[in-house]
Design goal:
Residues 31-55 have a biased composition (Basic and acidic residues). This is iodotyrosine deiodinase. It is a single chain. The chain has nine helices and nine strands. It has one domain (5-35, 65-265): NADH Oxidase (3-Layer(aba) Sandwich), CATH 3.40.109.10. The protein has helices spanning 11-21, 46-52, 87-102, 123-144, 146-154, 164-167, 193-210, 224-230, 262-265; strands at 5-6, 77-79, 115-120, 170-177, 179-181, 187-189, 237-245, 247-248, 253-255. Mean pLDDT is 82; it is low at 1-8 and 20-43. A hairpin with a 5-residue loop joins strand 5 and strand 6 (187-189). Helix content is 36%, strand content 14%. The structure holds flavin mononucleotide. Residues 1, 156, 158, 216-219, 254, 257 line the site of flavin mononucleotide.
Length: 269
C-alpha cells in the first residue's frame, strides 16, 4: 500500500540516528499489586498477566460466526502527499521535536529503555530482509492466518509482495529487549517492555511525520527470529516493528480511511 520511495541524502542518517537514539526516556510504572497468595514462583510477566486474567465483563459479546463483516471490500485509494521540507528545516524540526519530547518525564518508572533500533541502509541486507519477509508472508496469506485475516486485509490491497523493502532508502527494525544483560552476565528484568517499545515507536512515527518522511507500520509475522539472526541481534531481542522510511513517490496513494469519531473512543466518567 505504501509508496515507492525516492532516494534520500545521507543527512537523513544523522537525523534518524538522533531521533531514534534519544526518542524517549522513562517507562510507566504500575500500581502496587496485592501480594500473591501463592509462594510459588508463578510467571515471568506478573505486571501484565493480572490484567489478562480479568474476566469481569459487564456486557459480554458473542463470538462472531467468522463471516467477514466487511467495511468496503475494495476501499477507494486516494492520492497521498506530505509536506516537503528543506534539509535545513528537517534538521531544525527534528531538533525542536527532540527538545520538546526530551522534556517529557514520567514521575517515576522502571527506566529500562528496553529497545534496539536497527537502521538498515545496505541494499543487500534490505534485499535479504525482503526475501525472508516475502517467504513467510506468502505462507501467512496462503496457509497460516486463515480466511478472515486474508479478507480483513483485502480492502487494504496488501499482499506478500513487499517491493518497498528494496526501494525504501532506510528500513528501521525495532526490537523489544525482553530482558537486559547485567555486567555480571545475569538477566535484568525489563518490565513493560512491549508497552514501552510501542510507545517509543509511536513517538518515532510522529517524529518521521514531523519532518515530512513517510512509513508504513509493519509487523512482519513469523519473521522475527530469522531477521534477528540476519541482523546479528542477541536472543533477548524480539522484533516488534519494521518501518520502511523515505519520501512518498509522486503517484503514491493510500486507502481512503476515516478515523473513529471522538464519541466512539472517549468515555468521560
Ligand atoms: C500494530 C500495527 C501493525 C501493522 N502491521 C501492518 C503490516 O504488517 N502491513 C501493513 O501493510 N500495514 C500494517 N499496519 C498498518 C495499518 O494497516 C494502518 O496503520 C491502518 O490501516 C491505518 O492507516 P494509517 O496508518 O494510514 O492511518 C499496521 C498497523 C499497526 C497499528
Amino acid at each position: 500500500m505504501i509508496i515507492a520511495l525516492s532516494s534520500l541524502t545521507p543527512i537523513f542518517v544523522a537525523i534518524i540516528c538522533v531521533l531514534i537514539g534519544i526518542i524517549v526516556k522513562g517507562n510507566r510504572t504500575s500500581n502496587k499489586k496485592e501480594p500473591r497468595k501463592t509462594s510459588k514462583k508463578v510467571d515471568s510477566h506478573p505486571w501484565v498477566d493480572d490484567d489478562l486474567k480479568d474476566n469481569t465483563d459487564l456486557h459480554p459479546v458473542e463470538e462472531d460466526d467468522g463471516e467477514w463483516q466487511g467495511l468496503d471490500d475494495d476501499i477507494a485509494h486516494i492520492p497521498f502527499s506530505t509536506e516537503r521540507y528543506s534539509k535545513e528545516d528537517m534538521v531544525k524540526r527534528s531538533r525542536d521535536f527532540y527538545e520538546l519530547l526530551n522534556k517529557r518525564r514520567s514521575v517515576s518508572g522502571a527506566h529500562t529503555e528496553p529497545w534496539t533500533f536497527v537502521v538498515v541502509q545496505d541494499a543487500e541486507i534490505k534485499h535479504k530482509i525482503r526475501e525472508i519477509i516475502e517467504e513467510e508472508e506468502e505462507i501467512n496469506y496462503k496457509k497460516r492466518m486463515g480466511d478472515r485475516w486474508v479478507n480483513d486485509l483485502k480492502r487494504l490491497r496488501t499482499n506478500w509482495i513487499k517491493e518497498y523493502l528494496d526501494t525504501a532508502p532506510y528500513l528501521l527494525l525495532i526490537f523489544k529487549q525482553v530482558y537486559g544483560i547485567l555486567p555480571d552476565g545475569k538477566k535484568k528484568t525489563h518490565y513493560y517492555n512491549e508497552i514501552s517499545v510501542s510507545i517509543a515507536c509511536g513517538i518515532l512515527l510522529t517524529a518521521l511525520q514531523n519532518v515530512g518522511l513517510v512509513t508504513v507500520t509493519s509487523t512482519p509475522l513469523n519473521c522475527g527470529p530469522r531477521l534477528r539472526v540476519l541482523l546479528g541481534r542477541p536472543a533477548n531481542e524480539k522484533l516488534l516493528m519494521l518501518l520502511p522510511v523515505g519520501y512518498p513517490s509522486k503517484d503514491a496513494t493510500v486507502p481512503d480511511l476515516t478515523r473513529k469519531p471522538l464519541d466512539d473512543i472517549m468515555v468521560v466518567v
